[in-house]
Amino acid sequence: MDVIDINSGLGKEDVFTRAEDFLTEKGFRISKVDQTRPWGGFFVLDESQIREFSAMFFSDIVLSEEQLKQKLSPKFLLVAPGARLSWQYHFRRAELWKLINGEAGIVRSETDEQGQLKKMELSETVSLKQGERHRLVGLDKWGIVAEIWMHVDPDHPSNEDDIVRLEDDYSRK
């Protein structure tokens, strides 16, 4: 069941508006919105709401009290139809993803060689290990993915600079 009404005819601005309205209605405070990504964009939510975010979108994952005290960077990723994030990995984080609306696919591998595209299932948690190669892929409709970063070193948390791009459709490094 779709939690946000994002039919295939909506443009990027409308999809972002509906996602923002949904998050606001659910009581989440948005720290940052980025609609400039060529593949779509994201919302970063208030870190202090990680318990509510985890309970709403990752109720199948048990986070320890120690983990909940650390920076977990709750986000919403919005991937456009036919768009792809870079083929990438991270040194300082693992990630949890859950498709909460629309359609999206994932490619993943333990090596630099890309695996097969797998369609993500609604409400199924995907756990990406530190260093695991991965790519989020937009399919025929917009996809909305809830994401939590699991930082390897809480004293030196991961950030956007911790992206090692192996391949990118948009020539980013």
TrEMBL record:
Keywords: Isomerase. It comes from the Bacteria. GO terms for biological process: polysaccharide metabolic process. This is Mannose-6-phosphate isomerase. It comes from Algoriphagus ratkowskyi. InterPro entries: Man6P_isomerase-2_C, RmlC_Cupin_sf. Residues 73-168 form the Mannose-6-phosphate isomerase type II C-terminal domain. GO terms for molecular function: isomerase activity; nucleotidyltransferase activity.
